[in-house]
Design goal:
heterodimer; A: about 120 residues; mainly beta; four-stranded antiparallel beta sheet; B: about 120 residues; five-stranded antiparallel beta sheet; 11 strands
Chain lengths: ~120, ~120
């Protein structure tokens, strides 16, 4: 069974440009999460989808960040326009709904974003 | 608000020695607690979790952790370190116990474990 996959693994862009990160969760996982780790800091929650609906987006830094999950399958996280402080590793994770499994989060390998 | 503190950003041990990675948390509700490991160029992998059952939790690869409410701690231990244990370890607390999943986690800053021959 395929795990959580993220694309691209590494993106280097200039300040002001746009980047779109993609996450494919494990098939059948209704919960999808985005997290971010800025260098030297802790991993921080960004938002949570249940199927195609945003359950909690309290961690989104500002309106330059837009997350979507069309059809409740894969998700994208767009940063537009990117700023220097957006550099970091963006992790995606998925899980089954509580009651359908252990609730364990499965993480992807992360997308490293470097803004110059 | 919940928070997690991992004492020591870097821990170095010799192969065969005890591994002890410290984690303290604060939570206004009974917490769900987790330890994750990240090997180089890989995603985070769940080592073990505490969800209000037994206070001593056994995980994968010989790791275990003990939930101590009085000390608000959830330290991770392994009796004998292997070279393959070298990785970064994260302690986390769930902000959503009893909700749709355990997934909204608050992480500590991580501890890099180095194992010397």
């Amino acid at each position: 069974e395929a795990g959580v996959t993220q694309f691209p693994s590494h993106s280097v862009i200039e300040k002001g440009q746009t980047v779109t990160l993609r996450c494919d969760p494990i098939s059948g996982h209704d919960n999808l999460y985005w997290y971010r780790r800025v260098m030297g800091k802790e991993i921080k929650f960004l938002l949570h989808f249940v199927k195609e609906s945003k359950q909690d987006e309290s961690g989104m830094p500002n309106n330059r960040f837009l997350a979507e999950r069309t059809g409740g399958t894969y998700s994208t996280l767009k940063v537009q326009p990117a700023e220097l402080e957006d550099s970091g590793v963006y992790f995606c994770a998925s899980s089954q709904l509580q009651g359908k499994g252990t609730g364990e989060l499965f993480f992807g390998e992360g997308s490293r974003l470097t803004v110059l | 608000a919940q928070s997690v503190t991992q004492l020591g950003s870097h821990v170095s041990v010799s192969e065969g020695a005890l591994v002890l990675l410290r984690c303290n948390y604060s939570s206004s509700v009974p917490p769900y607690l987790f330890w994750y490991v990240q090997y180089p160029n890989q995603g985070l992998q769940l080592l073990l979790k505490y969800t209000s059952a037994a206070t001593l939790v056994k995980g994968i690869n010989g790791f275990e952790a003990e939930f101590k409410k009085s000390e608000t701690s959830f330290h991770l231990t392994k009796p004998s370190a292997h070279m393959s244990d070298a990785a970064e370890y994260f302690c986390a607390v769930s902000d959503n116990a009893g909700g749709t999943s355990y997934g909204k986690l608050t992480f500590g800053q991580g501890t890099i474990l180095t194992v010397h021959p």
